[in-house]
């Protein structure tokens, strides 16, 4: 009986030491000041420094009837270390027709998309690929032709990132959007 008592006392002693140690490991309470140089350095490391529209961007059928009634835009955001990163800000997407004779195309659509909440981040960001998927509804089905897509990301501190992408659509049946 004494051996069992010793084991119980030893286990109880270890648990009380662990609980006491963990209680002292609470996150320190600090305040963040906007003009803190360490905060500025941290933000420079983790905020996006570039965005890129990925080549899987394509016309899709949200209705599932094969008509290209939307554009699925896939965007990656990279930080200063060239790692994929999260985004907080507002995306502006603009789709234009592209004709060789025209210096500027005709606007087909414009979509502002805000990512300023955790809910919006979860809605647009695929946790596995860490890419952003935007199903952008068109007012009319997309006809066959050449298109130019521009995206601006407006970050909260005022920086703007930009990318563009050109593609051709043959007018054939559009697939449904990717499910992620």
Question: Would you kindly provide a written description of the structure presented here, covering whatever features stand out?
Answer:
The chain is of the alpha+beta class and 180 residues long. 22% of the residues lie in helices and 33% in strands. It contains three helices and eight strands; from the N terminus they run ααβββββαβββ. Strands 1, 2, 3 and 6 form a four-stranded antiparallel sheet that branches. Strands 5-4-7-8 form a four-stranded antiparallel sheet. The longest helix is centred in the first third of the chain and has 22 residues, at 2-23.
What coarse outline follows from CA principal-axis ratios? elongated
Instruction: Count every beta strand, where a strand is a DSSP E run of 2 or more residues.
Output: 8
The parts where pLDDT drops under 50 for at least 5 residues are: 1-25
Radius of gyration: 25 Å
How many individual helices?
A: 3
Helical residues, percent = 10-25%
* Highest CATH level, the class of the domain at 48-169: Mainly Beta
Biggest pleated sheet:
4 strands, antiparallel
Order of helix and strand elements from N to C terminus = HHEEEEEHEEE
Distance between the termini: 59 Å
What would you call the structural class? alpha+beta
On the 0-100 scale, what is the average pLDDT? 83
Portion of residues in beta strands equals: 25-35%
Q: Fill in the CATH topology of the domain at 48-169.
A: Immunoglobulin-like
Which CATH-level-2 architecture of the domain at 48-169? Sandwich
């Amino acid at each position: 009986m004494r051996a069992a008592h010793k084991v119980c006392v030893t286990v109880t002693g270890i648990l009380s030491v662990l609980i006491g140690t963990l209680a002292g490991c609470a996150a320190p309470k600090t305040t963040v000041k906007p003009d803190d140089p360490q905060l500025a350095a941290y933000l420079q490391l983790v905020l996006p420094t570039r965005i890129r529209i990925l080549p899987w961007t394509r016309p899709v059928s949200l209705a599932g009837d094969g008509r290209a009634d939307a554009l699925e835009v896939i965007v990656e955001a990279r930080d200063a270390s060239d790692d994929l990163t999260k985004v907080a800000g507002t995306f502006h997407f603009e789709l234009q027709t592209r004709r060789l004779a025209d210096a500027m195309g005709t606007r087909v659509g414009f979509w502002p998309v805000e990512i300023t909440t955790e809910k919006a981040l979860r809605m647009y960001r695929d946790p596995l690929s860490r890419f952003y998927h935007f199903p952008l509804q068109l007012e009319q089905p997309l006809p066959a032709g050449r298109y130019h897509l521009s995206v601006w990301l407006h970050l909260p501190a005022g920086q703007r990132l930009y990318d563009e992408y050109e593609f051709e659509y043959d007018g054939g049946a559009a697939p449904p959007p990717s499910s992620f």
